[in-house]
Input
Amino acid sequence: MWRRALPRYPGPGPAAASASALIGCLRRLQSTLVLAEHDNQKLTPITLNAITAAKQLGGDVTCLVAGTDCSKVVKEVSKVHGVKKILVAQNDIFKGLLPEELTPLVLASHKQFKFTHICAGASAFGKNLVPRIAAKLDVAAISDIIEIKAPDTFVRTIYAGNALCTVKSSDEVKVFSVRGTAFEAAATDGGDASSEEVSVPSAAGLSEWLEQNLSKSDRPELTSAKIVISGGRGLKSGDNFKLLYDLADKLHAAVGASRAAVDAGFVPNDLQVGQTGKIVAPDLYIAVGISGAIQHLAGMKDSKTIVAINKDPEAPIFQVADYGLVADLFKVVPEMTALLEK
Output
């Protein structure tokens, strides 16, 4: 008797199970190197977000900590949940974490341990370092990852964060940077990572760190603050930013700015929030006199609560705001500050 053969994969059941099993197997075979950003005293928070992304890939997670005297950072990383090993390189040439000096070290580490993935946070540190490493390995650098679908499939932002792109990589090693606001920070306790000293490659020593001059403020750092108050072109001058500084002092908030305000010379560019500035995701973001251009929204749209103050009811910022106030900022902001004083 002849019988009609059933399809080899008769529906989503076996096929889906097979695909899921394959992805699970791939994840177990992964090994990821996370490039730690720090100041020799403390780990930069975005590295914890990168570690979370690395854990989603499956397999072992290794952190590379390079610096001049970074024993405190090594101890901190050893307690981070999910990190199995720490590679430690200490030498004066790593002062300032120059990408020219770190790249040969990363390449030497990869040659020894054969990582399947290399990643860092999408900060200035990561954006300088990741493309150099990818170029030396002759692979594509995937920037600003916001989601990991599989060990070879990533979602990243494009067009000032207003559109998404799914990237599937067939490169032997995947090199990418992680948007910090897209991943939770890894837990800083519960870990028990071992550490291993690695030698400084002879190819290093091409650049020299001279000095760094940082602006000092009693307010919280912009990218890690729980409350951020940003001003735009609507403030009309740099002197008027005092209105925001006074309000920020009452709320223990950091102060930011739109690109328009920075370009106009109202405030220095280290306050800029946006695609070409700093990416923030505070519990509360207050946008004062900011129209809401796509470039700015890309830097703050992940904030938990967004409040907009603008006299133009048609301003695009109101489309993303949880609360909006159509009013004259020169009247409203001083009133808010006065109420907080009470």
In short: Residues 1-11 have pLDDT under 50 and may be disordered. Residues 222-341 form a domain with the Rossmann fold fold (CATH 3.40.50.1220). The chain is about 30% helix and 25% strand. The CA atoms of residues 106 and 133 lie 7 Å apart.
